[in-house]
Amino acid sequence: MADWHGFYKLSWRERLDKTIENKQLTAEQVALIEAQYDAVGEQQVENYLYNFGVPTGLLPGLPVDGRLVTVPMSTEEPSVIAAASNGARMMRAGEGVKTTIQSRLLRGQVILTDVANVDALQEYVSSNNQALLQAANDAHPSMAKRGGGAKALTVEVLDEQTAIVNVLVDPKAAMGANVVNTMSEAVAEKLTIAGYQVLMAILSNYATEALVKARVAIPVDALATKQGMPGAEVARKIAVASHVEQLSPYRAVTSNKGLLNGIEATVLASGNDTRAVNAALHAYAANNGQYHGLTSWTVQDDMLLGETTLPLMLGVVGGSIGIVPAVKLNHALMDNPTVNELTSIVAAVGLAQNLSALRALVTTGIQAGHMALQAKSLALQVGATTEEVPALTARLQQIGQFNETVARETLATLRHSK
Fold first, then answer.
1. What is the DSSP code (8-state) at residue 403?
2. 273 an active-site residue?
3. Which of 31, 195, 239, 262 is surrounded by the most beta carbons within 10 Å?
4. In this structure, how many other beta carbons lie within 10 angstroms of the beta carbon of residue 333?
5. Which residue in 263, 146, 136 sits closest to 191, CA to CA?
6. 96 in the Ramachandran plot: left (φ > 0), alpha (ψ -120 to 50) or beta?
7. Helices (H), 221-365
8. Is 257 an active-site residue?
9. Which residues 6+ apart lie within 8 Å of 357 measured at CB?
10. Rounded to 10 degrees, what is the CA torsion of 354, 355, 357, 360?
């Protein structure tokens, strides 16, 4: 049986040797691990072994709030950046995406149990509001000095004996998880001293106090297809498809997954927490009691109007943003956006992604373009060299069949014909 005892105490080289011993790695596998070693990465995670790379490409010319932005996107999925680029192209036919962000607060939750009198709790928090806020800000004074910090407290009653004291924090340019957790624990300590039973103190990733609203208007003529479907008909079908996403949770899940294809790729490239964003968006998709699509498309006169409201709490400082060279490069490629600008960019990418997907679905279908883009991955999967990929991809697109058997046969034919 493999022995992993004390693995976390070992140096990187010792961990690698232990892994080689326990998993019987080949020389090729060891060489891959060694080639992907990164000193920064070793400091980021427990039991570090190697960096797992994700391809990063650029979405150029995304029209957001009067600017054309270049957006790095990190994803393994071949069609994501292509689809976002197509959506951005159609958006540029109008005035682009316009966004508004009314507030940007992150919620910490101090969860109390065995509350004898919830009315008394509410009175205590109200009468000690400033003292509790001061305790929170004293726990992280630098945030308050920058104009951020704990701004408000609210009490949420869950049942007769369970309540939450919410700590609303302005994290400034950071995503704020560590700040909010620290402040929430400081408030929890005060509540404990006051005699309340604290179950836990932790942030909530459901960022409903950090909503971004994005809207775009596109001339219907920009939606016309090469196959001859008029733009007005495409727009009408997109609006109908959008309506279905409000009615069918099954359709809505797939639509929102497509939206997140672009959002997660952008969030990952920016060094932010994709899991937090993903969880928040899915929760918000069920905010009316039924899971629904996160975008809305309607037709007004000769314009297709797209709208979305998303809970997005991102950061441009802190976490991996300041220490990972590739993340710093990605921010430079976006012209080092402010935190609000980054939030608007991410929302705009989501709209572009959704627009492109819906247009494909209601016209030619999703598979034609999707499988054509998958052809490169398929070529590599069947053993084509990077030099052989273009010819094999072109041939597969001519044949119109994208499966492993056809790809292997076609590759063999191409090699034989040399």
1. S
2. yes
3. 262
4. 15
5. 136
6. left
7. 231-247, 249-269, 274-284, 325-333, 339-361
8. yes
9. 83, 255, 258, 366
10. 170
Query: 3-state DSSP call for residue 340?
Result: helix
Catalytic entry in 77, 233, 307, 388: 77
Element (H, E) at 216: strand 211-219
In the block, tokens 């976490």 appear at 319
Task: Return the C-alpha torsion angle 293, 299, 304, 307, nearest 10.
Answer: -40
**Helix, strand, or coil (residue 23):** helix
The active-site residue, picked from 21, 160, 257, 409, is 257
Go through 278-296 and write b for each residue having 16 or more CB atoms within 10 A of its CB, e for each that does not.
Answer: bbbbbbbbeeeeebbbbbb
CB–CB of 273/313 below 8 Å?
A: no
CA distance 38 to 20: 19
Euclidean distance between CA atoms 391 and 384, whole angstroms: 10
Helix (H, G, I), strand (E, B), or coil: what is residue 386? coil
Give start and end residues of each alpha helix (H) in 4-128.
12-23, 27-35, 39-44, 79-91, 118-127
Specify the residue for token string 């084509």: 384
Kindly name the residue from 18, 151, 328, 370 that is annotated as catalytic.
370
- Kindly name the residue from 273, 292, 331, 341 that is annotated as catalytic: 273
CA angle 37, 39, 44 (to 5 degrees): 100
Give CA–CA dist 121/154, Å, rounded. 11
What are the pLDDT tens digits along the chain (418 aa)?
789 999 999 999 999 999 999 999 999 999 999 999 999 999 999 999 999 999 999 999 999 999 999 999 999 998 999 999 999 999 999 999 999 999 999 999 999 999 999 999 999 999 999 999 999 999 999 998 999 999 999 999 999 999 999 999 999 999 999 999 999 999 999 999 999 999 999 999 999 999 999 999 999 999 999 999 999 999 999 999 999 999 999 999 999 999 999 999 999 999 999 999 999 999 999 999 999 999 999 999 999 999 999 999 999 998 888 889 999 999 999 999 999 999 999 999 999 999 999 999 999 876 666 566 677 778 888 888 888 888 888 888 788 777 888 888 888 888 888 7
